């Protein structure tokens, strides 16, 4: 690849040298050659040219322009450069693999997450699916261009939160990732998207198990930079097994792409030998209730702001705070701080401990009581400004719940509320409405069919208003980062008692769909800003889409797999003495 300056002197091909090789003075030498050539050309111009008298004939008497040769001083300079060293071409761009297996597993859910439940993309499919999204994989892809490295997409698997992942799914997905990595051209690193709260049939902490298998296949020194969701229950193995670990900073997760970009920046530095990550993690002894995970308000706002300030320091590569995921009965449940520095483990440990102390200091602010369903519905009916958003915390689909809770639905019907809209995952009822057709009468039991935790089925009477494919596109940065959505066959029921000015609507979906996008409603001809009451089965993530249009938001303490009060659950594996769990 390289050519010594001495070899260039022998050939005296300095113009090629100047163009192809980056050495001090190359432009100067090229300029010297150019000026010398111009003087030679001017001298030739003064000679008689036969072509002027005999057009079309070559002037055989004219002295030809010779390739310029270099004078003694220039050769001396070149000899000096030859002594300085060998001139080499630019090194090739690093090649970085992309892979991931992301799942938020509710260990209290009886519904396992099987291989068929994962959306799996391979190779270039990964780029087509996520390049234009706000996902962390989009950050990896954009980072390749920004930081000048080549990506090698392998496999990305992702599923809607539900119960623990089956051993079959874990084994097959990780085995295929490893197989694709082994068959890849020489790799310089791996960008790995893991949720951080995956539970499997055998492994309470699924993400470290994925890392252990990757380390076994790739070696202990192979660079692996991991991104995690904010709701990660991070086990110490994760900051020991990864080269660097970065989490989302925002809830709702509107910064996923930025998280991927940060990981790509760190990976670029590692691959080029510019940085040597050292990281430390600290877990304060507490549960940070999901009710307080909104990072744009107290008490997390100043803590997240501090992580951003730290990342402006030259020695700190990343500073992350995760809030934890309270619906997984695992040893390392709860919040975590991870700080990554450039070859300064002491600094990483000090700053991680300081951020952990900041989290611990907010514990007395985590005590607010929420309204229950009867009180919340009455308040929404009385509200003069709308829409009012009722947040059914106990059926947070994004936290792994059933999506078919009837606690809010039953109360809305009981209090004869008008102008509301709620989505319930009930494939059987959706199919009945579809077979009946638009305009047909509807009189069916809805919801409460998956388990006994989310209420009993409720009879709903009305008319089938419309039918839809359930597919829609979100173009704005929203929680989850996805662009393309599919809630399956969807039927909209106009509930008995509905009026033209205040339509009362029930959306029946075939698949559970997290309410991260207003287009879930708009795509079905429902305009959320015109409704009086909007019911969302969520916790915090809905806010990116709904907050801008909401006149008021009321969080409701309902039962279910994602009930906001941890006292509703029995924990066996968790560490003892955690604030918010044992108190």
Which stretches are low in confidence, meaning pLDDT under 50 for 5 or more residues running? 1-68
Which oligomeric state applies?
single chain
> N-to-C terminal Cα separation, in Å?
67 Å
What's the number of domains?
2
- Give a quick account of the main beta sheet: strands, pairing sense, barrel closure: 8 strands, mixed
Helix count, DSSP H or I runs of 4 or more residues: 18
Residue-averaged pLDDT, rounded? 88
What does this structure look like?
It is a single chain. With 583 residues, the protein is an alpha/beta fold. Helix 8 runs parallel beside helix 9 (206-218). Strand 7 (224-228), helix 10 (236-241) and strand 8 form a beta-alpha-beta unit. The longest helix is centred in the first third of the chain and has 20 residues, at 26-45. The chain has two domains: 95-365, no CATH class; 371-564, no CATH class. Helices cover 31% and strands 20% of the residues.
Q: What is the topology?
A:
Elements: E1 3-4, H1 5-11, H2 14-20, H3 26-45, H4 50-53, H5 72-84, E2 86-87, E3 95-102, E4 119-122, H6 124-130, H7 136-146, E5 150-158, H8 167-183, E6 189-194, H9 206-218, E7 224-228, H10 236-241, E8 244-247, H11 256-271, E9 277-282, H12 301-310, E10 316-322, E11 336-342, H13 345-360, H14 373-382, E12 388-392, H15 407-414, E13 420-425, H16 427-436, E14 441-446, E15 458-468, E16 471-473, E17 484-486, E18 490-495, E19 505-509, H17 519-522, E20 533-536, H18 543-546, E21 552-556
Parallel strand pairs: 3-5, 3-6, 6-7, 7-8, 12-20, 12-21, 13-19, 13-20
Antiparallel strand pairs: 1-2, 4-5, 9-11, 10-11, 14-15, 15-18, 16-17, 18-19
Helix pairs in contact: 2-3, 7-11, 8-9
